[in-house]
Design a protein that fits this description.
With about 350 residues, the protein is of the alpha+beta class. The chain contains 13 helices and eight strands. The longest helix is centred in the first third of the chain and has 38 residues.
Length: about 350
């Protein structure tokens, strides 16, 4: 009877204690979240309930599994102990990452709510994203190393590994030169404030918004929902346009190829009316001037400002459409024309004038 009750007490007691601690912790976090609604930290920490319970359960089993006095446990004591240790290390790494992630997300949420500078918020978001990836990688490497050290064979070869670490490091550095350059470029982008998540950029002829930044690559979402993935070294070695740099406000131009008789003064007045009626115009500035001429047409440039790149795109399309419609309806002579003449009938002499050299 004792051989049955003892394992049940050990296993059942560990499970019950784990569930009780998890329930109490969850209740305490709920109360803290209700008392401090200004921060999401306590609600985010509730996501760590499962890894916390797993760590507690494995720790209890790791310390009390011998008390079961099962013959099966005694025969496989080394394997059971090593398995529980490895699982405990993995669960501990999971718990650490959950706590760190909750603290970082809560801090960023409070900073975002308190800051009115969208550029600074995007910069902090980019830096936090990269820092979290670094912390995740470090925790994973440390956890994997701790798991490997539970095997005596790996500890035995540690001396020889350290002795050859210099040569291996040189070989690995040469082999991973491209990867390391991307990693350092990622640090440069994050802390050099070159490009941030949410910035509007033009890279390699593609217009889009920076959606994701990692230590090795950067993803740009184009206007047609495509994703362009580029190595971060591209942004440290080649020029690119960042429309959000220095603030989201932006100025755009619309060009028209018109006849020389086009009413520029009336177009200027019409543009002013369109901008005053458009919610996308931020009121900072506008203009309409003739910027170039050709033997058959002239180039008219309309300039307007907007609070961000999305509004500017809509405003440019609106101005282009409305001005062309207005010219077609009220001043059709202003649109460019191509002078043609009918071709001579078959058998008729060509009456096209020729220059006598």
């Amino acid at each position: 009877m004792e051989n049955v009750l003892r394992p049940l007490i050990v296993l059942g007691g560990s499970v019950l204690l784990t569930l009780l601690v998890g329930w109490v912790t969850d209740r305490l976090l709920r109360r803290a979240d209700a008392r401090h609604p200004e921060t999401p930290l306590w609600d985010l920490l509730r996501r760590c309930r499962l890894p916390l319970q797993l760590v507690l359960l494995l720790a209890l089993l790791r310390g009390s599994y011998r008390q079961t006095e099962w013959q099966l446990v005694d025969d496989h004591q080394v394997g059971i102990e090593r398995t529980l240790t490895i699982l405990l290390i993995g669960a501990g790494a999971w718990l650490v990452m959950g706590i760190v992630s909750a603290v970082v997300e809560a801090t960023y949420a409070r900073y975002e709510a308190a800051s009115s500078d969208l550029g600074r918020v995007r910069r902090v978001r980019t830096q936090i994203t990269l820092i979290m990836r670094i912390v995740t990688a470090v925790v994973a490497v440390v956890a994997a190393a701790a798991m490997l050290l539970t095997f005596p064979d790996f500890r035995a070869i540690g001396t020889s590994v350290l002795a050859s670490a210099g040569l291996i490091g040189i070989v690995a550095g040469v082999a991973a030169q491209s990867t390391l350059s991307n990693v350092f470029a990622g640090f440069q982008i994050a802390f050099g404030d070159m490009v941030r998540i949410g910035d509007t950029v033009v890279v390699d002829g593609h217009w889009g918004v920076v959606e994701e930044v990692t230590l090795t690559f950067l993803t740009v979402r184009t206007w047609d929902e495509r994703r362009i993935t580029m190595p971060v070294t591209y942004f440290t070695s080649k020029p690119f346009e960042n429309w959000s740099r220095g603030g989201p406000q932006i100025t755009g131009a619309v060009y028209f190829q018109l006849d020389h008789a086009a009413p520029v003064a009336l177009m200027r007045e019409r543009l002013r009316e369109l901008l005053q009626q458009s919610p996308q115009w931020d009121g900072r500035g506008w203009s309409l001037v003739v910027t170039d001429t050709t033997p058959s047409t002239m180039v008219v440039r309309a300039v307007a400002t907007a609070k961000d790149s999305d509004d500017l795109w809509t405003l440019r399309c609106h101005v282009r459409e409305e001005l062309i419609t207005w010219l077609s309806a009220h001043h059709p002579y202003a649109l460019p024309r191509v002078a043609t003449m009918p071709a001579p009938e078959r058998g008729e002499p060509d009456r096209t004038p020729h220059r006598n050299d």
